[in-house]
Design brief:
- The protein is mostly helical.
- It is 69% helix and 0% strand.
- The protein has 23 helices and no strands.
- Helix 5 crosses helix 11, helix 11 packs across helix 16 and helix 17 packs across helix 19.
- It is found in: Membrane.
Length: 505
Protein backbone atom coordinates (compact mmCIF):
# COMPACT_ATOMS: atom_id res chain seq x y z
CA UNK A 1 0.00 0.00 0.00
CA UNK A 2 1.51 3.35 -1.02
CA UNK A 3 1.70 6.41 1.16
CA UNK A 4 -0.98 8.22 -0.87
CA UNK A 5 -3.38 5.28 -0.63
CA UNK A 6 -2.83 5.07 3.11
CA UNK A 7 -3.58 8.75 3.54
CA UNK A 8 -6.74 8.36 1.43
CA UNK A 9 -8.01 5.83 3.99
CA UNK A 10 -7.24 8.00 7.04
CA UNK A 11 -9.61 10.56 8.54
CA UNK A 12 -8.42 14.15 7.98
CA UNK A 13 -7.07 14.48 11.54
CA UNK A 14 -4.94 11.41 11.04
CA UNK A 15 -3.09 12.84 8.05
CA UNK A 16 -1.82 15.86 9.91
CA UNK A 17 1.22 14.15 11.34
CA UNK A 18 2.53 13.11 7.92
CA UNK A 19 2.21 16.51 6.25
CA UNK A 20 5.49 17.90 7.53
CA UNK A 21 8.33 19.61 5.76
CA UNK A 22 10.78 16.90 6.78
CA UNK A 23 11.93 14.21 4.43
CA UNK A 24 10.59 10.69 4.25
CA UNK A 25 13.22 9.59 6.79
CA UNK A 26 11.18 11.15 9.58
CA UNK A 27 8.02 9.65 8.14
CA UNK A 28 9.54 6.18 8.15
CA UNK A 29 10.97 6.55 11.63
CA UNK A 30 7.72 7.77 13.07
CA UNK A 31 5.20 5.83 11.01
CA UNK A 32 6.98 2.48 10.62
CA UNK A 33 6.60 0.09 7.74
CA UNK A 34 3.63 -0.71 5.53
CA UNK A 35 2.02 -3.04 8.08
CA UNK A 36 2.35 -0.43 10.83
CA UNK A 37 0.65 2.13 8.61
CA UNK A 38 -2.14 -0.31 7.73
CA UNK A 39 -2.69 -0.92 11.42
CA UNK A 40 -3.11 2.79 12.07
CA UNK A 41 -5.51 3.02 9.13
CA UNK A 42 -7.54 0.14 10.55
CA UNK A 43 -7.79 1.86 13.92
CA UNK A 44 -8.52 5.24 12.32
CA UNK A 45 -5.76 6.92 14.33
CA UNK A 46 -2.91 9.22 13.39
CA UNK A 47 0.66 8.37 14.33
CA UNK A 48 1.66 10.66 17.22
CA UNK A 49 4.42 8.71 18.97
CA UNK A 50 7.80 7.77 17.56
CA UNK A 51 8.51 4.09 16.83
CA UNK A 52 11.69 3.58 18.86
CA UNK A 53 11.33 -0.11 19.81
CA UNK A 54 12.27 -3.29 17.96
CA UNK A 55 12.02 -6.95 19.01
CA UNK A 56 14.82 -7.14 21.57
CA UNK A 57 14.13 -3.74 23.11
CA UNK A 58 10.38 -4.43 23.52
CA UNK A 59 11.19 -7.95 24.77
CA UNK A 60 13.59 -6.48 27.33
CA UNK A 61 11.02 -3.84 28.25
CA UNK A 62 8.33 -6.44 29.00
CA UNK A 63 10.69 -8.84 30.80
CA UNK A 64 11.97 -6.08 33.09
CA UNK A 65 8.46 -4.79 33.70
CA UNK A 66 7.35 -8.33 34.52
CA UNK A 67 10.17 -8.75 37.08
CA UNK A 68 9.02 -12.34 37.59
CA UNK A 69 11.85 -13.76 39.69
CA UNK A 70 12.09 -10.53 41.68
CA UNK A 71 8.39 -10.62 42.54
CA UNK A 72 8.57 -14.30 43.47
CA UNK A 73 10.91 -13.25 46.28
CA UNK A 74 8.91 -10.15 47.24
CA UNK A 75 5.43 -11.70 47.03
CA UNK A 76 6.47 -14.56 49.27
CA UNK A 77 4.99 -12.50 52.08
CA UNK A 78 1.57 -13.11 50.46
CA UNK A 79 1.83 -16.72 49.29
CA UNK A 80 3.83 -18.44 52.04
CA UNK A 81 1.28 -17.89 54.85
CA UNK A 82 -1.60 -19.08 52.63
CA UNK A 83 -0.77 -22.54 51.36
CA UNK A 84 2.77 -22.80 52.71
CA UNK A 85 5.73 -23.93 50.64
CA UNK A 86 3.75 -26.55 48.72
CA UNK A 87 0.92 -24.14 47.96
CA UNK A 88 3.40 -21.54 46.71
CA UNK A 89 4.96 -24.00 44.24
CA UNK A 90 1.82 -25.66 42.91
CA UNK A 91 -0.23 -22.48 42.60
CA UNK A 92 2.69 -20.90 40.75
CA UNK A 93 2.63 -23.77 38.24
CA UNK A 94 -1.14 -23.54 37.81
CA UNK A 95 -0.86 -19.79 37.31
CA UNK A 96 1.91 -20.27 34.74
CA UNK A 97 -0.35 -22.37 32.56
CA UNK A 98 -3.39 -20.17 33.11
CA UNK A 99 -1.58 -16.91 32.40
CA UNK A 100 0.17 -18.36 29.34
CA UNK A 101 -3.22 -19.04 27.77
CA UNK A 102 -4.31 -15.50 28.67
CA UNK A 103 -1.21 -13.81 27.24
CA UNK A 104 -1.89 -15.18 23.77
CA UNK A 105 -4.76 -12.73 23.39
CA UNK A 106 -4.76 -8.94 23.73
CA UNK A 107 -7.75 -6.54 23.72
CA UNK A 108 -9.41 -6.32 20.31
CA UNK A 109 -12.79 -6.10 18.57
CA UNK A 110 -15.00 -5.17 21.53
CA UNK A 111 -18.33 -3.42 21.43
CA UNK A 112 -18.57 0.16 22.61
CA UNK A 113 -19.42 -0.23 26.30
CA UNK A 114 -17.25 -3.30 26.76
CA UNK A 115 -14.26 -1.57 25.18
CA UNK A 116 -14.93 1.40 27.45
CA UNK A 117 -15.08 -0.94 30.46
CA UNK A 118 -11.86 -2.67 29.47
CA UNK A 119 -10.20 0.72 29.04
CA UNK A 120 -11.05 1.77 32.57
CA UNK A 121 -10.08 -1.61 34.04
CA UNK A 122 -6.70 -1.47 32.30
CA UNK A 123 -6.16 2.08 33.53
CA UNK A 124 -6.96 0.94 37.08
CA UNK A 125 -4.79 -2.17 36.84
CA UNK A 126 -1.73 -0.49 35.37
CA UNK A 127 -1.83 2.53 37.67
CA UNK A 128 -2.20 0.23 40.67
CA UNK A 129 0.76 -1.70 39.27
CA UNK A 130 2.81 1.50 39.13
CA UNK A 131 1.86 2.36 42.70
CA UNK A 132 2.57 -1.19 43.88
CA UNK A 133 5.97 -1.33 42.18
CA UNK A 134 6.99 2.02 43.67
CA UNK A 135 5.71 0.87 47.07
CA UNK A 136 7.72 -2.36 46.80
CA UNK A 137 10.83 -0.35 45.92
CA UNK A 138 10.24 1.76 49.01
CA UNK A 139 10.00 -1.41 51.09
CA UNK A 140 13.41 -2.51 49.82
CA UNK A 141 14.89 0.80 50.99
CA UNK A 142 13.40 0.22 54.43
CA UNK A 143 14.72 -3.35 54.49
CA UNK A 144 18.22 -2.03 53.74
CA UNK A 145 17.89 0.48 56.58
CA UNK A 146 16.78 -2.26 58.99
CA UNK A 147 19.77 -4.38 57.98
CA UNK A 148 22.11 -1.46 58.64
CA UNK A 149 20.26 -0.34 61.79
CA UNK A 150 18.26 -3.14 63.49
CA UNK A 151 16.64 -0.58 65.83
CA UNK A 152 14.80 1.06 62.93
CA UNK A 153 11.01 0.52 63.01
CA UNK A 154 9.22 0.42 59.65
CA UNK A 155 6.31 2.87 59.27
CA UNK A 156 3.80 2.75 56.39
CA UNK A 157 3.80 6.53 55.96
CA UNK A 158 7.53 6.37 55.31
CA UNK A 159 6.94 3.67 52.70
CA UNK A 160 4.35 5.90 51.02
CA UNK A 161 6.81 8.80 50.83
CA UNK A 162 9.50 6.53 49.40
CA UNK A 163 6.98 5.28 46.82
CA UNK A 164 6.30 8.86 45.77
CA UNK A 165 10.03 9.49 45.39
CA UNK A 166 10.38 6.42 43.17
CA UNK A 167 7.49 7.44 40.91
CA UNK A 168 9.05 10.90 40.49
CA UNK A 169 12.25 9.18 39.30
CA UNK A 170 10.25 6.90 36.97
CA UNK A 171 8.27 9.75 35.42
CA UNK A 172 11.39 11.91 35.18
CA UNK A 173 13.18 9.19 33.24
CA UNK A 174 10.18 8.83 30.92
CA UNK A 175 10.24 12.51 30.07
CA UNK A 176 13.89 13.58 30.04
CA UNK A 177 15.57 10.34 28.94
CA UNK A 178 12.76 8.56 27.09
CA UNK A 179 14.66 8.43 23.78
CA UNK A 180 17.35 6.41 25.58
CA UNK A 181 14.86 3.89 26.98
CA UNK A 182 15.40 1.16 24.31
CA UNK A 183 19.17 1.28 24.97
CA UNK A 184 18.71 1.26 28.74
CA UNK A 185 16.44 -1.80 28.44
CA UNK A 186 19.39 -3.80 27.11
CA UNK A 187 21.62 -2.73 30.01
CA UNK A 188 19.00 -3.44 32.67
CA UNK A 189 18.22 -6.76 30.99
CA UNK A 190 21.83 -7.81 31.69
CA UNK A 191 21.41 -6.81 35.35
CA UNK A 192 18.11 -8.72 35.45
CA UNK A 193 19.68 -11.96 34.17
CA UNK A 194 22.93 -11.74 36.15
CA UNK A 195 21.01 -10.65 39.23
CA UNK A 196 18.89 -13.78 38.93
CA UNK A 197 21.98 -15.99 38.90
CA UNK A 198 23.50 -14.05 41.81
CA UNK A 199 20.44 -14.66 43.98
CA UNK A 200 19.85 -18.32 43.19
CA UNK A 201 23.54 -19.32 43.25
CA UNK A 202 24.02 -17.71 46.66
CA UNK A 203 21.05 -19.67 47.98
CA UNK A 204 22.06 -22.92 46.25
CA UNK A 205 25.59 -22.75 47.68
CA UNK A 206 25.15 -21.13 51.10
CA UNK A 207 21.60 -21.76 52.35
CA UNK A 208 20.59 -24.88 54.28
CA UNK A 209 18.44 -27.07 52.05
CA UNK A 210 15.06 -28.51 52.89
CA UNK A 211 13.91 -31.93 51.76
CA UNK A 212 11.16 -32.95 49.38
CA UNK A 213 8.55 -32.40 52.09
CA UNK A 214 8.46 -28.71 51.11
CA UNK A 215 6.52 -29.80 48.02
CA UNK A 216 3.85 -31.52 50.11
CA UNK A 217 3.65 -29.24 53.18
CA UNK A 218 0.54 -27.06 53.06
CA UNK A 219 -0.63 -24.51 55.63
CA UNK A 220 -4.20 -23.28 56.10
CA UNK A 221 -3.54 -19.96 57.90
CA UNK A 222 -6.89 -20.37 59.65
CA UNK A 223 -8.94 -21.11 56.52
CA UNK A 224 -11.24 -24.13 56.38
CA UNK A 225 -8.91 -26.13 54.15
CA UNK A 226 -5.53 -26.02 52.46
CA UNK A 227 -7.31 -25.71 49.10
CA UNK A 228 -9.03 -22.49 50.12
CA UNK A 229 -5.77 -21.16 51.58
CA UNK A 230 -3.95 -21.86 48.29
CA UNK A 231 -6.63 -20.07 46.29
CA UNK A 232 -6.41 -17.07 48.61
CA UNK A 233 -2.64 -17.10 48.13
CA UNK A 234 -2.97 -17.26 44.33
CA UNK A 235 -2.81 -13.46 44.21
CA UNK A 236 0.96 -13.78 44.74
CA UNK A 237 1.81 -15.93 41.68
CA UNK A 238 -0.62 -13.93 39.56
CA UNK A 239 1.15 -10.78 40.71
CA UNK A 240 4.47 -12.45 39.85
CA UNK A 241 3.41 -13.30 36.31
CA UNK A 242 0.81 -10.76 35.24
CA UNK A 243 1.62 -8.02 32.77
CA UNK A 244 2.98 -9.75 29.68
CA UNK A 245 0.45 -7.61 27.80
CA UNK A 246 2.44 -4.51 28.80
CA UNK A 247 4.07 -4.36 25.37
CA UNK A 248 0.61 -4.10 23.76
CA UNK A 249 0.30 -0.57 25.10
CA UNK A 250 3.51 0.40 23.29
CA UNK A 251 2.49 -1.09 19.95
CA UNK A 252 2.37 2.37 18.39
CA UNK A 253 6.01 2.82 19.39
CA UNK A 254 7.12 -0.56 17.98
CA UNK A 255 8.44 -1.09 14.46
CA UNK A 256 6.65 -3.86 12.51
CA UNK A 257 4.30 -4.20 15.47
CA UNK A 258 1.89 -6.68 13.87
CA UNK A 259 4.62 -9.30 13.46
CA UNK A 260 6.89 -8.55 16.42
CA UNK A 261 4.35 -7.85 19.18
CA UNK A 262 2.68 -11.27 19.61
CA UNK A 263 6.01 -13.07 19.36
CA UNK A 264 7.57 -10.74 21.92
CA UNK A 265 4.64 -11.36 24.27
CA UNK A 266 5.03 -15.13 24.06
CA UNK A 267 8.82 -14.89 24.44
CA UNK A 268 8.34 -12.65 27.48
CA UNK A 269 5.93 -15.12 29.06
CA UNK A 270 8.24 -18.09 28.47
CA UNK A 271 11.31 -16.35 29.93
CA UNK A 272 9.52 -14.85 32.92
CA UNK A 273 7.72 -18.08 33.79
CA UNK A 274 10.92 -20.13 33.52
CA UNK A 275 12.96 -17.79 35.74
CA UNK A 276 10.05 -17.46 38.14
CA UNK A 277 9.63 -21.22 38.47
CA UNK A 278 13.34 -21.74 39.19
CA UNK A 279 13.12 -18.97 41.79
CA UNK A 280 10.09 -20.36 43.63
CA UNK A 281 11.69 -23.82 43.80
CA UNK A 282 14.91 -22.27 45.11
CA UNK A 283 13.04 -20.17 47.67
CA UNK A 284 10.98 -22.98 49.20
CA UNK A 285 13.94 -25.38 49.43
CA UNK A 286 16.20 -22.72 50.99
CA UNK A 287 13.55 -21.02 53.13
CA UNK A 288 14.47 -22.51 56.48
CA UNK A 289 12.06 -21.66 59.29
CA UNK A 290 8.84 -20.34 57.73
CA UNK A 291 7.75 -18.23 60.71
CA UNK A 292 11.21 -16.68 61.01
CA UNK A 293 11.09 -15.57 57.37
CA UNK A 294 7.51 -14.27 57.44
CA UNK A 295 8.00 -12.31 60.67
CA UNK A 296 11.34 -10.78 59.64
CA UNK A 297 12.00 -7.30 61.03
CA UNK A 298 12.95 -6.24 57.48
CA UNK A 299 9.38 -6.85 56.32
CA UNK A 300 10.76 -8.94 53.44
CA UNK A 301 10.92 -12.73 53.93
CA UNK A 302 13.48 -13.16 51.14
CA UNK A 303 15.86 -10.70 52.84
CA UNK A 304 15.77 -12.80 56.01
CA UNK A 305 16.43 -15.93 53.93
CA UNK A 306 19.46 -14.24 52.33
CA UNK A 307 20.73 -13.07 55.71
CA UNK A 308 20.37 -16.56 57.19
CA UNK A 309 22.18 -18.05 54.18
CA UNK A 310 25.09 -15.62 53.90
CA UNK A 311 25.44 -14.72 57.59
CA UNK A 312 26.66 -11.39 56.22
CA UNK A 313 24.82 -8.10 56.56
CA UNK A 314 26.98 -6.53 53.83
CA UNK A 315 26.28 -9.27 51.28
CA UNK A 316 22.56 -9.17 52.05
CA UNK A 317 22.48 -5.39 51.63
CA UNK A 318 24.32 -5.69 48.30
CA UNK A 319 21.79 -8.20 46.96
CA UNK A 320 18.88 -6.10 48.22
CA UNK A 321 20.34 -3.06 46.42
CA UNK A 322 20.30 -5.11 43.19
CA UNK A 323 16.64 -5.86 43.86
CA UNK A 324 15.99 -2.15 44.45
CA UNK A 325 17.65 -1.17 41.16
CA UNK A 326 15.57 -3.69 39.24
CA UNK A 327 12.34 -2.54 40.91
CA UNK A 328 13.09 1.09 40.05
CA UNK A 329 13.69 -0.02 36.44
CA UNK A 330 10.40 -1.90 36.58
CA UNK A 331 8.72 1.30 37.85
CA UNK A 332 10.16 3.24 34.89
CA UNK A 333 8.66 0.72 32.45
CA UNK A 334 5.37 0.55 34.33
CA UNK A 335 5.11 4.35 34.19
CA UNK A 336 5.58 4.09 30.42
CA UNK A 337 2.86 1.46 30.09
CA UNK A 338 0.34 3.08 32.45
CA UNK A 339 0.68 6.50 30.82
CA UNK A 340 0.31 5.02 27.32
CA UNK A 341 -2.78 3.09 28.41
CA UNK A 342 -4.34 6.27 29.81
CA UNK A 343 -3.32 8.32 26.76
CA UNK A 344 -4.74 5.85 24.23
CA UNK A 345 -7.97 5.57 26.23
CA UNK A 346 -8.23 9.37 26.32
CA UNK A 347 -7.64 9.53 22.56
CA UNK A 348 -10.86 7.53 22.17
CA UNK A 349 -12.72 9.95 24.46
CA UNK A 350 -12.97 7.60 27.46
CA UNK A 351 -11.97 9.37 30.70
CA UNK A 352 -12.86 12.91 31.80
CA UNK A 353 -10.66 15.67 30.32
CA UNK A 354 -9.83 13.42 27.37
CA UNK A 355 -8.80 16.29 25.11
CA UNK A 356 -6.16 17.40 27.61
CA UNK A 357 -5.01 13.88 28.50
CA UNK A 358 -4.58 12.88 24.84
CA UNK A 359 -2.54 15.93 23.91
CA UNK A 360 1.00 15.25 22.66
CA UNK A 361 3.23 18.28 22.28
CA UNK A 362 4.84 18.37 18.80
CA UNK A 363 8.51 17.48 18.96
CA UNK A 364 8.24 15.75 22.35
CA UNK A 365 6.44 12.66 21.01
CA UNK A 366 5.44 11.58 24.54
CA UNK A 367 2.06 11.93 26.31
CA UNK A 368 3.28 14.34 28.99
CA UNK A 369 -0.17 15.15 30.37
CA UNK A 370 -1.04 11.49 30.83
CA UNK A 371 2.35 10.94 32.46
CA UNK A 372 1.63 13.70 34.97
CA UNK A 373 -1.70 12.12 35.88
CA UNK A 374 0.01 8.74 36.35
CA UNK A 375 2.32 10.38 38.86
CA UNK A 376 -0.62 11.94 40.70
CA UNK A 377 -2.64 8.72 40.82
CA UNK A 378 0.33 6.85 42.27
CA UNK A 379 0.72 9.48 44.99
CA UNK A 380 -2.98 9.26 45.86
CA UNK A 381 -3.00 5.45 46.00
CA UNK A 382 0.11 5.51 48.19
CA UNK A 383 -1.65 7.83 50.64
CA UNK A 384 -4.86 5.78 50.69
CA UNK A 385 -3.16 2.71 52.12
CA UNK A 386 -1.22 4.52 54.87
CA UNK A 387 -1.88 2.72 58.15
CA UNK A 388 -2.94 -0.55 56.54
CA UNK A 389 -1.07 -3.66 57.64
CA UNK A 390 -1.79 -5.18 54.22
CA UNK A 391 -0.96 -2.13 52.09
CA UNK A 392 1.20 -3.96 49.57
CA UNK A 393 -1.37 -6.75 49.27
CA UNK A 394 -4.02 -4.14 48.42
CA UNK A 395 -1.91 -2.95 45.48
CA UNK A 396 -1.35 -6.51 44.25
CA UNK A 397 -5.04 -7.39 44.33
CA UNK A 398 -5.99 -4.10 42.64
CA UNK A 399 -3.57 -4.85 39.82
CA UNK A 400 -4.80 -8.41 39.51
CA UNK A 401 -8.52 -7.62 39.70
CA UNK A 402 -8.32 -4.80 37.17
CA UNK A 403 -6.23 -6.63 34.59
CA UNK A 404 -7.86 -10.04 35.07
CA UNK A 405 -11.27 -8.43 34.54
CA UNK A 406 -10.10 -6.81 31.31
CA UNK A 407 -8.58 -10.09 30.09
CA UNK A 408 -11.78 -12.01 30.87
CA UNK A 409 -13.98 -9.56 28.96
CA UNK A 410 -11.67 -9.55 25.95
CA UNK A 411 -11.28 -13.32 25.81
CA UNK A 412 -15.00 -13.85 26.34
CA UNK A 413 -15.77 -11.59 23.37
CA UNK A 414 -13.17 -13.31 21.20
CA UNK A 415 -14.57 -16.72 22.13
CA UNK A 416 -18.11 -15.61 21.31
CA UNK A 417 -16.93 -14.24 17.96
CA UNK A 418 -15.22 -17.57 17.18
CA UNK A 419 -18.32 -19.56 18.12
CA UNK A 420 -20.46 -17.39 15.85
CA UNK A 421 -17.99 -17.87 13.01
CA UNK A 422 -17.56 -14.13 12.50
CA UNK A 423 -14.47 -12.89 10.60
CA UNK A 424 -11.44 -11.36 12.31
CA UNK A 425 -9.33 -8.53 10.88
CA UNK A 426 -6.20 -9.65 8.97
CA UNK A 427 -3.45 -10.82 11.33
CA UNK A 428 0.17 -11.98 11.17
CA UNK A 429 -0.30 -14.25 14.21
CA UNK A 430 -2.97 -16.91 14.72
CA UNK A 431 -3.49 -20.06 16.77
CA UNK A 432 -5.85 -21.51 14.22
CA UNK A 433 -8.15 -24.24 15.53
CA UNK A 434 -6.43 -24.27 18.94
CA UNK A 435 -7.78 -20.79 19.64
CA UNK A 436 -11.09 -21.99 21.06
CA UNK A 437 -9.41 -24.41 23.49
CA UNK A 438 -6.99 -21.72 24.65
CA UNK A 439 -9.85 -19.25 25.16
CA UNK A 440 -11.94 -21.68 27.21
CA UNK A 441 -9.04 -22.65 29.50
CA UNK A 442 -8.01 -19.02 29.97
CA UNK A 443 -11.55 -17.90 30.75
CA UNK A 444 -12.07 -20.71 33.29
CA UNK A 445 -8.82 -19.84 35.05
CA UNK A 446 -9.59 -16.13 35.12
CA UNK A 447 -13.07 -16.66 36.55
CA UNK A 448 -11.78 -18.62 39.55
CA UNK A 449 -8.71 -16.46 40.13
CA UNK A 450 -10.69 -13.20 40.02
CA UNK A 451 -13.03 -14.19 42.86
CA UNK A 452 -10.20 -14.88 45.30
CA UNK A 453 -8.43 -11.57 44.64
CA UNK A 454 -10.72 -9.82 47.11
CA UNK A 455 -10.33 -12.27 49.99
CA UNK A 456 -8.45 -11.00 53.07
CA UNK A 457 -5.09 -12.61 53.79
CA UNK A 458 -6.57 -14.40 56.82
CA UNK A 459 -10.12 -15.16 58.04
CA UNK A 460 -11.88 -12.83 60.49
CA UNK A 461 -9.90 -9.71 59.49
CA UNK A 462 -9.84 -6.50 61.50
CA UNK A 463 -10.14 -3.07 59.92
CA UNK A 464 -6.36 -2.87 59.79
CA UNK A 465 -5.88 -6.24 58.08
CA UNK A 466 -8.90 -6.10 55.76
CA UNK A 467 -8.34 -6.29 52.01
CA UNK A 468 -9.75 -2.89 51.07
CA UNK A 469 -9.09 -3.35 47.36
CA UNK A 470 -12.74 -4.35 46.88
CA UNK A 471 -13.76 -0.86 48.05
CA UNK A 472 -11.42 0.90 45.61
CA UNK A 473 -12.36 -1.48 42.77
CA UNK A 474 -16.08 -0.97 43.44
CA UNK A 475 -15.69 2.81 43.58
CA UNK A 476 -13.96 2.80 40.18
CA UNK A 477 -16.72 0.60 38.68
CA UNK A 478 -19.44 2.94 39.99
CA UNK A 479 -17.57 6.03 38.79
CA UNK A 480 -16.96 4.88 35.22
CA UNK A 481 -20.49 3.49 34.87
CA UNK A 482 -22.04 6.81 35.93
CA UNK A 483 -19.56 8.73 33.78
CA UNK A 484 -20.46 6.60 30.76
CA UNK A 485 -24.20 7.05 31.27
CA UNK A 486 -23.96 10.81 31.77
CA UNK A 487 -21.17 11.84 29.41
CA UNK A 488 -18.85 9.31 27.77
CA UNK A 489 -21.51 7.44 25.77
CA UNK A 490 -22.04 10.59 23.72
CA UNK A 491 -18.38 11.10 22.77
CA UNK A 492 -16.57 7.80 23.29
CA UNK A 493 -15.96 6.00 19.99
CA UNK A 494 -13.42 3.28 20.76
CA UNK A 495 -11.41 1.29 18.26
CA UNK A 496 -14.25 -1.04 17.34
CA UNK A 497 -15.88 1.49 14.98
CA UNK A 498 -12.79 1.71 12.78
CA UNK A 499 -11.89 -1.98 13.07
CA UNK A 500 -15.36 -3.10 12.06
CA UNK A 501 -15.47 -0.69 9.13
CA UNK A 502 -12.02 -1.80 7.93
CA UNK A 503 -12.96 -5.50 8.20
CA UNK A 504 -16.17 -4.95 6.25
CA UNK A 505 -14.23 -3.28 3.46
Amino acid sequence: MTRSKIQDRLPPSAIEVHETSDADADYNEKSGDEYDQRGMVRMGKRQELRREFQFFSIFGFAVILGCSWEYVFINGVLSLPNGGTAGSVWMFLITCFGMFFVVLFAPANLQKFLSYTVGYLCVLGWHASLAGTCYAAGQQVQAIIVLANPQFAIQTWETALLAMAVVVVAVGFNTVLYRKLPIVEGIVMIVHVFGFFAFVIVLWVMAPRGDSSVLTTFTTNGWSSAGVACLVGISAPIGDLIGADSSVHLSEELKNAAWILPRAMVATAVMNYLLGFITIITLVFCLGDLDNAINSATGQPYVQVLLNATQSTGATIALTVVMLILLISCAVNTATTSSRQLWSFARDGGPPFSAWLSRVRPGWDIPMNAMTVSLGVTAILSCIVIGSATAYGVFVTLVNSGLLSSYAICIGCILLKRIRGEPFPPSQFSLGGAGNIVNVIALAFLSVAWVFQFFPSAPDPTGNSMNWSILIFGAVIIFFTVHYAVNARHRYTGPVVHVTRHTAE
